[in-house]
Write a structure and sequence with these properties.
Length: 324
């Protein structure tokens, strides 16, 4: 049976009187391709980080465990983008309960990703600003506990925020094929503070301290004559770490700022489909850049990629390989 023009524009043509209508985009193919590319790259890069840290025993350090947490959260963000891509057409095909579950998982994973970045910034702060006591204060046990708290608190918080939606999935939908989750103003502002304002404040403060220490050490090294060897290497390492952290901070803020600015002033801002797609892409693109910023600058990551791509990791004893 041929579909009528009206039925072709519906999410569920069989439910003529109840189905939502598809959204018409000016450039739908470009939006689908862009988000699909970001999703694929995000999943691939973070999967490489996950395999590297899991497989090679030498990489089982506290700092790399934090990178692993970040990579897992960003990997899931890339996977969940598939649902966001499906929503570009204006239709939700997975049911009311899955809509709520997707909202909870998506926001929880994103919060865990940002939380992991905060913990990594604390780790780098300790390593650069208090190197003598770093090994004592930053242990695998404490890192495991921090990661567990980060992930569990994210899921608990967003589950509690959506408790009413879980009890009555689809209560705010106006038609079949819609995915609408409504939270109170207090909950929304709390989420905004915990997921953006708070982490940004912590990261900025810690990075400023790192820059101050790096600059002071660099000046101290320049003032010394005849102490180039070890001191020169230390200065170079600290400055490199400071520059890397600066890139992290700028990229993170640049990617997430537009999204949260829209969230803060959502009632006063009207976005067309193209603008909304760009903002969403920027937000998710941060998870794509994280493995590049945090891992690709490490020599062990480049070496592990080569071993993974060439299937050298399948050889017996490959997990004992020297990665440094």
């Amino acid at each position: 049976m041929m579909e009528t023009p009206m039925e072709a524009e519906l999410c569920f043509p069989l439910l003529v009187n109840a189905s939502c209508s598809k959204t018409q985009h000016s450039q739908p193919i470009a939006a689908y391709l862009l988000l699909s590319a970001i999703s694929l790259i995000t999943v691939t890069l973070n999967l490489l980080v996950i395999i590297s840290i899991f497989h090679f025993k030498q990489l089982h350090t506290p700092t790399n465990l934090l990178l692993l947490s970040l990579a897992i959260s960003d990997f899931l963000v890339g996977f969940l983008m598939l649902f966001q891509i499906s929503l570009l057409g204006g239709c939700w095909f997975f049911g009311d309960l899955m809509c709520v579950v997707y909202y909870i998982v998506d926001h929880s994973v994103t919060s865990a990703s940002i939380g992991s970045m905060v913990i990594i910034s604390v780790d780098r702060y300790m390593a650069i600003c208090d190197p003598l006591r770093y090994a004592v204060k930053v242990t695998k046990t404490r890192v495991d506990i921090s990661v567990f708290i980060c992930w569990s608190s994210s899921f608990v918080f967003h589950s509690l925020c959506s408790i009413d939606a879980l009890k009555q999935p689809g209560r705010f939908n106006t038609c079949v094929g819609e995915c609408v989750i409504v939270v109170t103003y207090a909950v929304g502002m709390t989420d905004l503070f915990l997921s953006f304002m708070g982490p940004i404040a912590v990261i900025v403060v810690l990075y400023l301290q790192v820059f101050i220490v790096a600059v002071s050490h660099a000046r101290a090294m320049r003032s010394r004559v005849g102490n180039e060897g070890l001191h020169g290497a230390t200065k170079s390492s600290e400055l490199k770490a400071a520059r890397t952290l600066g890139v992290v901070m700028v990229v993170f803020i640049a990617c997430v700022m537009p999204y949260f600015c829209v969230v803060i002033s959502a009632q006063d801002v009207a976005l067309n489909a193209s603008s909304a797609t760009i903002i969403i892409c920027l937000f998710y693109f941060n998870s794509c850049l994280n493995p590049l910023i945090y891992a690709i600058f490490y020599p062990w990551f480049r070496k592990s990629i080569k071993l993974i791509v060439t299937l050298q990791i399948l050889k017996p004893g490959s997990h004992q390989a020297n990665m440094m």
